Structure formats: structure tokens, C-alpha cells
Amino acid sequence: MTADRPRAPGYEDAVRARIAAARLWAAHRAPYLASAVFALNTVILEPALDEDTGAPVADPGFRAFPADTRWNLYVEPGTALATPVEEAGWWMLHQVGHLVRGHAARSPVRPEPGHEVSTARLPAAGAVRDEEAHRWNQAADAEINDDLEAEELRGPVGVVSPAELGLPAHRTAEEYVPMLDVLASAMGRGGRALAEAIDCGSGVDGQERTYEDGGPGEGLTRLDRELLERSIAAGIQDRISARGELPSGWRRWAEERLRPSVNWRARLGAVIRRGLSTVAGQVDFSYRRPSRRAGAYAGIVPPSMVRAVPDTVLVIDTSGSVTKDVLSRLLAEVTGIIDGVAGPGRRLRAFCCDVHPHPVQVVRRASDIELVGGGGTDMRAGIATAMALRPRPDLVVVLTDGETPWPEQRPPAQVVVCLIGDGGHAPGWASVARIPQGMPAKGET
């Protein structure tokens, strides 16, 4: 489908042929994204023509083949004809990454729902945007270019590359923003630019552009996008099941996209209770209460079987990336669950941890815990400190956003990780409950 606009005679067929070849190249190089590549709706824009030859002139503002959230791919004829097929195909995969990962919905600069924006204020392609929008575009580029590089698909000159910039791999756009801010400041003092100012369109930041005048009738509907994303995620999962190689970013996205929505409180309670039951399953003998079979023995008082009360330690990440309000609410939830299993009023050991662990606090209520610390996080030190306590705990509950290194080996205790927010990670040997960053107070929706 193309927009109904005047075009330079004789060039439309060449542009269509170039885009068709680019689609085939992209689908061949990343077959798990083929359905997304072919779902892109091409909108051929009116070209700028050379006054002498009448040929379309390339516009640098459309170098990235920008897209909008309706999956419209805006093609400027001069740019399309001047771009090699392989590079145009790379940009298609790049734009699919922005759209499928929902970068526009995650953008910190997107207009509020229902907020009307004047046409005069809409940015044009390649226009100078505010620094926050520009940095978000670069951070979102870093998130998806990382996965393209994992497929040995090197980007064109000037695009953001986490590997070339020395940034850690497999991070989200939200994680890359502060890294790029620091790096840009350092490089600026040396007179260098971080990367070219490439505009990927409203599909990355949610801000409409002046050329997006196709209206709601063009592109994919919300239902179309929902079905397409589920189909892509299912295809990726099938590829994983067949032991196919895939970049970690797409693996993570497919897993989260197909994961059913569950009540996080129910999940948290189930994980902690399972951990408590596992360590409490080791029974012992006790003479505090005679066995119910005592009448069967003459002159002997047999012991009864008792279940041990698990000794639990809380390790609290106070690095600064998680607010004290969220931590306080989560502590109340966790201690309430532990009280329900182990009995109320029991003393509980807890300590805060950033780069180094802080002194252990022995408390009866969550409100008695003093949250101290700030800075970075190293949960290797936190787990090691918990294991060094005497008596050694049966269960360790870690409250963290997961932005931390973890011990490579499983510690000699059951570990439950309450992972706060959408980012971060937990080790494979731990039980995990994902907690929303903006968790409401109990009783709120």
C-alpha cells in the first residue's frame, strides 16, 4: 500500500523493486522475523527532484527508513535508490526491532494519552530533537543492534554499537540511557561524537512526524499488531525448542511476550512458601510432646516427629535504584508470608547490601528494619555474608532489582529472589518472583 501522492515518473517501479529485494534479504537473514518484515506497510513519499536531471535526490533524514507505530515504513525514493539492498534490509530488521519491542510505548518522551499535539510542532525527518528524545533513540538502537550483531549483521557506519562503544551486552534501552549519557559526556570533552544523529521515526519515541499524514486507515490495527507479535513470539519459541540459535534479546522478549499475566502477590507467596517447605521438610524427633503411639509401648516414652522452623535471612538491595517506599512495602509482604508459615512474632535476621553488606539487624517486624546504604550493588558479597552467619540460614530471601553480579555456584541454602521491576536478572539456581517496580500498596489495584 502506498500513500496517494505525486511521484517522479519512472522511479516508482525501481523503488518498489529495491524494497522488495530488501525484504527478501532481511527475511532470509533473520527468518524468525520474516512475518514482521513482510508486515511492514511501505509508504512511498514524494521525492525531492534534481532541477537539472529530474532524478530523485537522497534525503539524509530518511536514511533509517523511519517507521511509525502502525507499522508504516516511510520510503523516500532518492534515499531508497541510493541505498544498497543489504543496507535497506538491515534497516528493515532494525525498525522491526523497535516496533516489536514496543519502544514507542516505553519512550519517556511520548505524548500523554489524549494529549493533542499541534501539526506545527511535529518534528520532520532528521530534525534536531530535544536531547532526551535523541538519547532514547540511541539507547533503543543499542538494545536491538546488539542482537543484530549477534547474528553477524553489522550495522551501517554511524549507528550505535554497544560492542564498539565498550558497553555491556544484552541490556534494555532503559539501562543504556544513563550509560550513553556518561559516555557522550566523556567523548564530548575529547571532541568526538558518540554516533550520528539518526532518526528512526515515531516507532521509537511515540512522537509523530510531519510526513506521517496517512491517517488511521493505513498500516496495522491494534488487533493486527497483537496477533502478529504473538505469532512472532510463538515462532521464536518453536525455534528455541528445536535448539535453534537466537540472540538473547529475542529469546527474552518472546518468553515475556508469551508469559501469562499472573498475580505477583500470589507468585511471591507461592515461591517463598515453597522455599520454606523445602527446608522445613527435614523432620526431627522431639520429647516435648509424646508420640501418639506411646500407648503401644510399655515403660517407653517414644518421641514425636516435628517439623523444623526454617531459619530465614533477608538480604535487601539498597543500591539506590529501588526506592525505599517500594522496599518497605515489599518487606511487609515478605515478612507477612514468613510469619504465616513459621509463626508470628519470631525474630528475623536481615541486612542491607550495596557494594558491601551492612550490619545484621534482628527484628520482629518489617517496620523495624532500617534501610541503609546506596551506590552500586554486588550480591555476591550479600550471599557470602548470609552463608557466613551462625547459625547458617536455611532460606535466604533477596530483595533486588537484579542489576548486580551473582555467585556462579549455588550456595548451601535455598535462595528466593524477589526481582523488582522489568529489568535485571537472577541466577538459574534461584527461585524467582518478579515484582512490579510501581507495586501498589496492599488493597490497591
Structural class: alpha/beta
Oligomeric state of the chains?
A: single chain
- For the terminal residues, how far apart are their CA atoms? 43 Å
Overall, the morphology is elongated
DSSP strand tally: 12
Order of helices and strands: HHEEEEHHHHHHHHHHEEEHEEHEEE
Strand order of the largest sheet: 9-8-7-10-11-12
> What is the percent of helical residues?
25-40%
Q: Give the C-alpha Rg.
A: 28 Å
| Main sheet attributes: strand count, strand direction, barrel closure | 6 strands, mixed
Describe this structure in words.
The protein is α/β, with parallel strands linked by helices and 445 residues long. It contains 14 helices and 12 strands. The protein has helices at 12-29, 34-39, 77-82, 85-100, 103-106, 131-150, 162-165, 173-189, 202-205, 222-241, 248-258, 264-280, 324-342, 379-388; strands at 41-44, 48-49, 56-57, 72-75, 283-290, 303-307, 312-317, 348-353, 361-363, 395-400, 414-420, 431-435. The strands form 4 sheets. It has a 6-stranded mixed β-sheet with strand order 9-8-7-10-11-12, with helices on both faces. Strands 1-4 form a two-stranded parallel ribbon. It has a two-stranded antiparallel sheet with strand order 2-3. A hairpin with a 6-residue loop joins strand 2 (48-49) and strand 3. Helix 1 crosses helix 4 (85-100), helix 6 crosses helix 8 and helix 12 packs across helix 13. It is elongated and about 115 Å long. The two termini are 43 Å apart. The model is unreliable at 1-8 and 114-121 (pLDDT under 50).
Summarize the structure.
The chain has 445 residues and is of the alpha/beta class.
